[in-house]
UniProtKB/TrEMBL annotation:
Lineage of origin: Bacteria, Pseudomonadati, Verrucomicrobiota, Verrucomicrobiia, Verrucomicrobiales
Alphabetic keyword roster: Membrane, Transmembrane, Transmembrane helix
Membrane among keywords: yes
Name used for this protein in its record: DUF2157 domain-containing protein
Keyword Nucleotide-binding included in the entry's annotation: no
Transmembrane segments: 22-45, 51-74, 95-114, 120-137, 146-169, 181-200
Length: 208
């Protein structure tokens, strides 16, 4: 490879990384705060519900957050005069969707056909697979998002352990309940993450 070809290749790589980072800048900060607040509201609304009714509250909350995220992406794409359906968005979806779809489907399966208390299993499934989805796009995500993914992964695994062999932490899980567990992770983790991003990142800078 000649020096000219090498330079061209490096420029293509830098351009690709910048394009991929756009998706995270659009979804970080304000989107995390909005998602955290919506999760706390869903946790409160679902507290007295069970089974499919409990899951419906969280699905409606998810739909609202997705609409907000799409609006964020459209706004960012318009401001930068870029296409909404960018290469970065395609790569992010390709990495995250398998875990999100698998976890979502299994959680709904537990809610529909599981026994009493299946809400906690569904919540643990969603938390674990959301963490896996964030880690699946770690190669081009900010380091802060990797820590967020690890927090979800560890909490999801700990929840499953509490339901099986780690009896010492099961009282914590019983105290929280499925709504509290979802609110603490999707609400608390996202609020902490969003607050850290908003207060430490300058406007126009990368969402690290």
């Amino acid at each position: 490879m000649t020096t000219h070809e090498e330079a061209a290749e490096q420029l293509r790589a830098i351009r690709s990384m910048m394009e991929r980072a756009t998706i995270f800048r659009a979804l970080s900060g304000e989107a995390a705060l909005f998602g955290g607040a919506a999760s706390l509201a869903a946790g409160w609304l679902s507290e007295s519900r069970s089974g499919w009714a409990w899951g419906t509250v969280w699905l409606v909350g998810l739909a609202i957050v997705i609409v907000f995220a799409i609006w964020q992406l459209l706004r960012t794409a318009s401001a930068n005069q870029k296409s909404f359906w960018s290469q970065g968005l395609k790569i992010a979806l390709r990495g995250a969707l398998p875990s999100l779809l698998a976890g979502g489907f299994l959680g709904l399966l537990f809610l529909k056909y599981g026994q009493t208390g299946s809400e906690t299993l569904a919540a643990s499934m969603w938390i674990l697979h959301y963490g896996l989805a964030l880690l699946a796009i770690r190669e081009f995500a900010p380091k802060s998002m990797i820590w967020l993914g690890l927090a979800f992964l560890v909490t999801g695994l700990a929840s499953f352990c509490a339901m099986t062999f780690a009896q010492t932490i099961s009282p914590i899980l019983r105290t929280l309940g499925p709504s509290g567990l979802m609110a603490a992770t999707f609400g608390g983790f996202h609020l902490l993450y969003g607050a850290a991003i908003v207060t430490t990142t300058k406007r126009g800078a990368s969402g690290e």
